[in-house]
Amino acid sequence: MLHLVLFYIFAFLCVAGAVNLLAQRHPINSALSLIVVMGSLAVLYLLLGAEFVAAIQVIVYAGAVMVLFVFVIMLLNAGEEEHSNASRVAVYVGVPALIALAALVVYGLLHNTPTAGVQLAIGEFMGGVKPIANLLFRDFLLPFEVTSVLILIAIMGAVVLAQRGED
Amino acid sequence: MSDHLHLWLIPLLPLAGAFINGLFGRRFSNRVVSAIALASTAASFGLAAWTAMQFAHMPASDIPYHRDYAPWIIAGGFQADFGVYLDQLSLVMILVVTGVGFLIHVYSVGYMAHEGGYYRFFSYLNLFMFFMLTLVLASSYLLMFVGWEGVGLASYLLIGFYFHKDSAANAGKKAFIVNRIGDFGFLIGMFLLIQKFGTLNYDYVFSHVANMPLEGHSAGFLTAVALLLMVGACGKSAQLPLYVWLPDAMEGPTPVSALIHAATMVTAGVYMVARSNAIFSRAPLALTVVAVVGLATAFFAATIGMAQNDIKRVLAYSTISQLGYMFLACGVAAYSAAIFHLMTHAFFKALLFLSAGSVIHALSGEQDMRHMGGLRKKIPWTFAVMTVGTFAIAGTPYLAGFYSKDDILWKAYSTPFYGHWSLWLVGVLTAGITAFYMFRLWFMTFFGESRVPEHVDEHGHDEHGHGGHVHESPWVMLAPLVILAALSIIGGYLGVPEILAKATPTIGGPDAIHHFLAPAVGSEPEEHALPPKAESAAALATAEHAQEAEHKMEMMLTGASVAAALIGFLLAWLLYWQRTDLPEKITSQIGGVYRLVRDKYRIDELYGHLFVKPLVENISTNLLWKQIDVGTIDTLVNDAAAGAQELSRRTRRMQSGNIRSYAGWVALGAAAVVAFMVWMGMQ
Amino acid sequence: MVPLSYYLVLSAVLFCLGVAGFLIKRNVITIFMSIELMLNAVNLTFVAFSAQLHKLSAQVFVFFVMVVAAAEAAVGLAIIIAIFRSRQTLNVDKVDLLKL
User: Fold this and answer.
1) pLDDT at residue number B535
2) Of A148, B237, B277, B426, most Cβ neighbours within 10 A?
């Protein structure tokens, strides 16, 4: 019961934040809404028993990635969005396609997913640090190392790209 | 069977000459070119003469002499070979073709001496000899058709020899196209033969045709074939309605007119009909058509010849008319008479054309008889030989034309046709007209006051580069004329009919040529032998009586035709020497009719209106060019290109560079994929 | 108990809102944030299934998704800075030529 209520509240927050992201004209407002979405998602992860993932969500996503976004918005002094509409395709083809996509996915999910609920109690965490670390550093060691290389490359790329050109 | 005659050399020697002159002649001097051309033709003639001598000793079983050298076409069940076929008929033809051809080559050396394209002329002339000899020596209809087409080609090349002149080029085209119409009929005839017999070889076809029944009054297969072959002959030998090319063909140099359009090419049709006598003799309907066409052409052309003023045109219409006589002879199944007339005609028509060329040459290019006159003292040799030719063609006794023409007229009369006398009557009438227009030509050219324009007489320089005054031709041109004149006299003695045998010199006895040709053309000469087993003296007496009546008839008819010729002569004498003012008065009296005849009955204009104009304007230009080629095909191609451009122009807009539109398309694609997956899930 | 499908539907809705943001918004940074939203939606799906099926490997996958998302955000924002420097605009409709 509590589970359901909590789910509803934070699901509502997610969707509200996402809608707000679309509705706001200034990117900084959109960024803040996205932070709200991420926070709500972290709670949902906790409800699903994934404590490690929830922690990382907050630390990495909301704490680092979004901070980066905010920094860039401030750096570039992004203003309110202009009104230009150069693409009729995006609106007239994309939006109906999107609605169709949403309808299809929802239909597919509702008709094919087993209706059994998620059998977890509140506070029953299965995704603790130790089990995940076991998986990460044993079974998924190679992808882990590869991602570290990926991050290295990303750092180098970001540094190069953001450099001012020699003038 | 050994090939001891090596007949293949006869056509191939001129081909070699044509080849050498054609490829290298540009660098040779005129002497070398003429040496090559004359040598190859002379060698051909020598070989033909040698063949004739061998022929005399050949056993009858070996005739016809047929040798196949190499297979040519092997397609399914049909086979055609390169082969030669020699019998009496082709022997006569090769002698005529090579002999007269050689004389004309010699003449051309003089006539064309100052013309440009000398090597080209002799190359084409030799090429023509090759094709003509192939035509007469061929062992199958297919090989004959090769020669048939080839002489048409050579004729086109030679008529249009002065290709800078529009009129010459057009005349060459006209000749070729009209010939082609005839060839179409010939081809269909050949296709029918292939369908029935599976081959076109003479041996096979004729022996099988001999087993087929006579097609009485009903037309059947043989009639169809014969009529189609006749269409081909009409085209090649300038009979109604396909004669229109021959007068225009006079645009070519005069030796060409002499060789091709008088002596040899136009006679190919007659040869073909004579060769196919087995087919024609079994299709009486076709024979009637041949005779009627020939006679009508003879009369028709003679009337036109009366009103022409160009000396070569008169001779051209005369040729058409004489060819009509030959077809008349074929049409009454007197094939040997036709060949006899072919031979004598070759002699005197070549003579007439070449002497006309000599006259033209003497006058530095003048061809209109109204500008001639009084030439007999200035060019005596030409006058002499032309006189022989004119008298010969008119049918003067003791000259060649008399015997051959009367032969035809007698055979026309005595044939068991209904209304055979009408054939004879029109024939005699035509003979009279022939005499008239030939003597008209003779008088206008050589007698009376000189109407030659002054610039020619005194100081014109023509394209031949001579100084202006009227001058006799060089001996290289006169020698062949003299030889031809001699032949025009004695040539007739090969076919003297029996009733005259005592009064005339003969070569080889009476009806020599008919006896000679009989095995080849299947027609027996008049048998005047008494019936073998006379039952009683009374029967014998009746037979003799009948024969005497026949002889009397023949004499009478001969007399009638001589009389017609005499009337023609007198008329011409009156109008063109004695009272030269009369023609003007007469033509002004019958103005419209005269103009109609002078304008060749406006047949060319009629054909132009009926056939040429619709074909060229409506079909070729409007339909085929404007609608189909430009309208459909070009439009199709252009529209395809334009369509591709349009398509790419529209598709290009997808690559706008706008990220959001890309996203839109991606969303669409994603929706499609998901839809597909959901649909798969539902299956 | 919350049915699994609820989580999945929520995830789908978030994803579609992310796509909508991509299509509708004109500021390039906002578009980028929509992409992050999409990635988060996918993460939610993974975690939901992990809880349902009691498999932890899905959560490891979420970990990797986050790593990649972070790297991508870093590089992408660097690119946006570079574009801003040359075009002086953050309006994606104005950046439609390939050449910089």
Assistant:
1) 53
2) B237
Q: What pLDDT, on a 0 to 100 scale, did the predictor assign at position C38?
A: 96
A89 and A157 both lie in a single domain? no
- One domain for residues A138 and A120: no
Do A49 and A68 lie in one domain? The reply is: yes
Contact call for B663 and A90, based on CB within 8 A: yes
CB-based burial label for B589 (10 Å; 0-12, 13-18, 19+): exposed
% pLDDT > 70, chain A: 90
**Residues B306-348 pLDDT 10s:** 888 899 999 999 999 999 999 999 998 888 889 999 999 999 9
Task: For residues B179 and B238, give the distance between their C-alpha atoms in angstroms, rounded to a whole number.
Answer: 9
| Residue ranges making up the domain that contains A154 | 128-167
Same domain flag for A10 and A68: yes
Looking at the structure, tell me whether residues A36 and A19 fall in a common domain. Answer: yes
Contact A108 B677 (CB under 8 A): yes
pLDDT digits (tens, 9 = 90+) for B534-554: 456 666 777 777 778 878 888
Half-sphere exposure in the Cβ direction for B90 (13 Å, CA) = 26
Q: Are B26 and B119 in contact (CB under 8 A)?
A: yes
Handedness of CA B113, B115, B117, B122 (dihedral sign): negative
Give the closest-approach CA distance of B664 to chain A in angstroms: 4
The rounded percent of chain B whose pLDDT value lies above 70 is 93
Same domain, residue pair A49 and A107: yes
- Please name which of C6, B301, B387, C18 lies closest in space to residue A4, comparing C-alpha atoms: C6
As a dihedral over the C-alpha atoms of residue B1, residue B5, residue B10, residue B15, rounded to 10 degrees, the angle is 50
Residues A10 and A39 reside in one and the same domain: yes
Do both A45 and A12 map to the same domain?
yes
Which positions in chain B touch A109 (Cβ < 8 Å)? none
pLDDT at residue B543 in the model = 74
A82 vs C16, C26, C59: nearest CB: C26
pLDDT score recorded for residue A113: 67
Asked if B302 and B595 count as a contact pair (C-beta separation under 8 A), the reply is no
The per-residue pLDDT for range B93-108, each reduced to its tens digit, is 999 999 999 999 999 9
The complex's ipTM works out to 0.91
The reply to whether C72 touches chain A by the CB within 8 Å rule is: yes
Contact of A106 with chain B, judged by CB distance below 8 Å, is answered with no
Beta-bridge partner residues of C27: C91
C44's CB contacts (< 8 A; 6+ apart) are A41, A44, A45, C7, C10, C11, C14
Distance between CA atoms of B88 and B86, rounded to whole angstroms?
7
> Who wins on pLDDT, B599 or B169?
B169
Q: How many CB pairs under 8 A join B and C?
A: 22
> Model confidence over B205-220: pLDDT tens digits?
888 888 887 776 666 8
**Nearest by CB to C23, which of A73, A94, A160?**
A94
CATH of the domain at A29: 1.20.120.1200
Picking from B658, B663, B674, the nearest residue to A105 by CB comes out as B674
Are residues B657 and C97, on separate chains, in Cβ contact within 8 Å?
A: yes
Nearest to B674 by CA among C64, A118, C19: C19
Residue contact A78–C82, C-beta within 8 A:
no
Chain B residue numbers with beta carbons less than 8 Å from the beta carbon of C22 are 660, 663
Domains along chain C with CATH numbers: 4-94 (1.10.287.3510)
Number of domains into which chain A is organized: 2
Say which residue the tokens 């009919």 belong to. Answer: B497
Strand duo B78-86 + B65-75: pairing: antiparallel
Find out whether B273 and B280 touch, Cβ atoms under 8 Å. yes
With an 8 Å Cβ cutoff, the interface of chain C facing chain B consists of 19, 22-23, 26, 31, 92-93, 95-98
